Structures are given as C-alpha cells and as structure tokens.
C-alpha cells in the first residue's frame, strides 16, 4: 500500500538516537530486544534472496515512451508532493550531527551577514549548501546549531512549494540562512554564491530522486562551488533496501530506478557507484560506507533489512607550490 511505502520512505530519515554502531546483534536470539541493529552482515543467502525479490518485480519496465514525463515533470511531481504533505512527511534528521560533525565550523567564529554583503553570507567564515532541502528537515536542525558560530546556510529545492515552506518556518532567519528555488539538473543553474565558496555541500536523499544519467553532471557542477578542502556529505538509499524489494510490478524505469505512485522517483545506490560518482568529479574519499541495519517490528515480529549509503568526499587541496 502507498501508506506502507510512505512509512518506509519516512523511516529512511529516521535513526535511533544512538550513534551508528552502538547496537550490534551478537546473539540472534536477542533480535526482538531492540527496534534496530547496526552493521548487519548479510549472508550470501540473504543477498541472493534480496536480488531475486528485486528481480521478481523489476523485469517488466515502464515503456520508454512513457518514461519521459518522470524526468521532464519531476519538479511538478515534487511540487504536488509538498502541496499534499506540506511539512508533515519527513521527520527532522536528528542524526545529522552524530554522523556529520563536519557541519559545525571548527575555526574561529565571525559574523554570518553584514550590511555591506554583496551576496547573502558573503562574510561568513563557513558556508553550507543543502541541495534538495524539501521542507527543511535538515536545514532547521543546522540553523539552530550554528547560531553565533558565524556559519551561513544556503538551501535550494526545485519545488517552489518546498522553498516556501522553508521560508515560512518560524526558525527561518535571513541572517543565518538563504533559501532559493533551483533545479540542480539545470546546466546553466545560477547560484547566489561564487565558485570555490562553500565548505560543505549536504546531499540527503536527493541524488536518488534524480535520473541516474544526470547525477554525474550534478555532482561535477556542484563540486565547482566547494572550496579546496571543502566536503560533500551524502546519505541516501542503498541497493536492496527493503523499500526497493517492495516495489510492485510496473514501477521500474531502469536498473534500480523506480517511480512511486505519486510520480516521484528513487534510485538505489551501491558503494562502488557512489565512489565513482564522487571520484569522477575529482574528489577524495573520507568515508564511503554501506549502513546495513535490521529494523524490527517487535509487535508484529517482523525483521526488515534496511540499507543506506553514507559517504564523505573532499575536494583536494591544491598541491603546495
Ligand atoms: C526525498 S526528498 C529529501 C528532502 C530533504 N533533503 C530531507 O532530508 O528531508 C528529495 C528532495 O529533493 C528535491 N529534488 C529532487 N530533484 C531535484 C532537482 N533536480 N533540483 C532540486 N531539488 C530536487 C525534491 O523536491 C525533494 O524535496
Ligand atoms: C511484487 O509485486 C506484486 C504485485 O505486483 C506483489 O504482490 C509482491 O509482493 C511484490 N514482491 C515483493 C517482493 O514485494
């Protein structure tokens, strides 16, 4: 049901309040003791079963003549999504600072904005961009953590409704944050900051919603905006996550890429794919891991295999001359 699909998508932002790796299942009999177990190793059998279940419903593809709209109208589908769900769908990404402490500036503070700024955040010593910010479930935890640090947050989404939700949020503060509408697949996209100006680019469940053939271009273009030493922080759906297995027949667009009932799309990444994506753009790996967990519905005694990708890639510093 769509409801279940929503619950899975929603849970993908959910994380236990414990850091990654805090709960390791050593005794299989303990499985129903917690809602979530970390660093789950899949047996070859489990992997094969996941592959088969995926193939079961992915073999029939949506005909190519019907596929175009999911790409050309992607923005409309997401706009309708936010019209329908407003800010009620995704939960705040509470795990952000546990997994991505790089979001907090470590250098000396400063003033995020000044009267004489020629662009928002020009004088901030530390600048973050979130791409595909949606209703702000990552932006506001960040905004509320960087007060008085001098850091500044930009965020964009191609859904103007999403951007409006961010701007209407009670915590939206123009001295710390600038939200704007931008399609990052647009090759001539214009951004309110110059190249080489960002310390962090945050990509949380956004690259998966973009057509796989466009993703490399997006990463290449975005990386132009990172300072040398600047970093991409990425978290997204992983290959053979339960939500991939559960796609019904007739939803598959191409290998590991699907459209949901509402027209929004989702791709499921492997570790190798994530690595080539960022290294092809000339970035160096800091972290690239497959976050495999078991989620347990204790009431119904259901065991669910979840897979997310979590990666950090840095723009290398120029070689000393
Ligand atoms: C699954 S949501 C995640 C939202 C948010 N990052 C969060 O963590 O709650 C994906 C978001 O990416 C946005 N998006 C998808 N394709 C985009 C594009 N080409 N340019 C800008 N935003 C895009 C969608 O509008 C949607 O808000
Ligand atoms: C595949 O799709 C059918 C309906 O088209 C559904 O009944 C079945 O549960 C799906 N398979 C998996 C593994 O979810």
TrEMBL record:
Domain Methyltransferase type, residue spans: 129-232
Enzyme Commission no: 2.1.1.-
Keyword Electron transport: no
Uppermost EC category: transferase
Chain spans, region Disordered: 45-67
Matching InterPro entries: Methyltransf_12 (IPR013217), METTL2/6/8-like (IPR026113), SAM-dependent_MTases_sf (IPR029063)
Similarity annotation: Belongs to the methyltransferase superfamily. METL family.
PANTHER family cross-referenced by the UniProt entry: METHYLTRANSFERASE-RELATED, TRNA N(3)-METHYLCYTIDINE METHYLTRANSFERASE
Name of the protein: tRNA N(3)-cytidine methyltransferase
């Amino acid at each position: 049901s769509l409801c279940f699909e929503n619950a899975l998508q929603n849970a993908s932002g959910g994380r236990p309040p414990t850091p990654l790796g805090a709960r390791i299942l050593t005794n299989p009999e303990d499985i129903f003791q917690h809602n979530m177990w970390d660093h789950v190793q899949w047996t070859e059998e489990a992997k094969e079963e996941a592959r088969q279940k995926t193939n079961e419903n992915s073999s029939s593809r949506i005909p190519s003549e019907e596929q175009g709209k999911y790409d050309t109208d992607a923005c409309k589908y997401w706009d309708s999504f936010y019209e329908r769900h407003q800010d009620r769908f995704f939960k705040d990404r509470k795990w952000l600072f546990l997994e991505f402490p790089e979001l907090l500036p470590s250098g000396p503070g400063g003033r995020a904005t000044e009267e004489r700024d020629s662009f928002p955040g020009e004088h901030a010593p530390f600048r973050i961009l979130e791409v595909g910010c949606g209703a702000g479930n990552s932006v506001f935890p960040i905004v509320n953590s960087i007060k008085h640090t001098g850091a500044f947050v930009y965020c964009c989404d191609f859904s103007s409704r999403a951007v409006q939700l961010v701007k209407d949020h009670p915590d939206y503060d123009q001295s710390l944050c600038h939200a704007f509408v931008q399609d990052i697949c647009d090759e001539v996209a214009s951004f309110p900051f110059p190249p080489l100006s960002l310390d962090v680019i945050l990509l949380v469940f956004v690259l998966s919603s973009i057509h796989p053939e466009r993703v490399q271009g997006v990463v290449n273009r975005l990386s132009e905006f990172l300072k040398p030493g600047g970093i991409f922080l990425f978290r997204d759906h992983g290959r053979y996550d339960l939500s991939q297995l559960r796609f019904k027949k007739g939803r598959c667009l191409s290998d590991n890429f699907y459209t949901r009932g509402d027209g929004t799309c989702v791709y499921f990444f492997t570790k190798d794919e994530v690595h080539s994506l960022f290294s092809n753009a000339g970035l160096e790996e800091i972290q690239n891991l497959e976050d495999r967990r078991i989620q347990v519905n204790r009431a119904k005694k259901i065991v669910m295999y979840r897979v997310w990708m979590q990666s950090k890639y840095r723009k290398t510093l120029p070689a000393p001359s």
